[in-house]
Write a structure and sequence with these properties.
By secondary structure, the chain is mostly helical. The chain has 7 helices and no strands. The chain has one domain (about 20-125). Helix 3 (about 20-35) crosses helix 7 (about 110-125). The longest helix has 24 residues, at about 55-80.
């Protein structure tokens, strides 16, 4: 799937030094916390930043390239609407979750990146 569609899988991501982790997830998490979001909301914000850009091969495997692009678009729309800072962020995230479930989409790669970002944030906090 990755080579067929030009997607960057986990091994390529690791070989490049985990750019989505260090250039997207960790900065998004730190920005959200710095802007006063609660930890849970900050993690939600970071997760959607990751979903929006990661070539999540779990999404691609389960939904093909259209499923991956659907998830990325949904995440980008969530962020454009204000992300986790919007008043109804939990309801919006829940609606996206339901849409993913209906399409059998699971952003497992993005969840792994979020877990790593949470670990980096915890270990590297000043």
């Amino acid at each position: 799937m990755t080579q067929q569609h030009g997607l960057r899988g986990a091994s390529e991501e690791a070989a490049l030094g985990l750019p989505v982790l260090f250039e997207v997830a960790v900065p998004a998490l730190r920005r959200a916390l710095a802007h006063g979001l609660a930890v849970r909301a900050a993690r939600l914000e970071a997760l959607f930043h990751v979903i929006a850009v990661l070539d999540d091969t779990n999404l691609a495997h389960r939904g093909g390239l259209p499923g991956l692009r659907y998830a990325q678009g949904a995440a980008a729309n969530f962020l454009a609407a204000g992300g986790a800072a919007q008043g109804d962020a939990s309801a919006q995230a829940e609606a996206i979750h339901r849409a993913f479930v209906a399409r059998r989409l699971s952003p497992g790669g993005a969840a792994d990146v979020l877990a790593a970002a949470c670990w980096v944030q915890r270990v590297c906090t000043d």
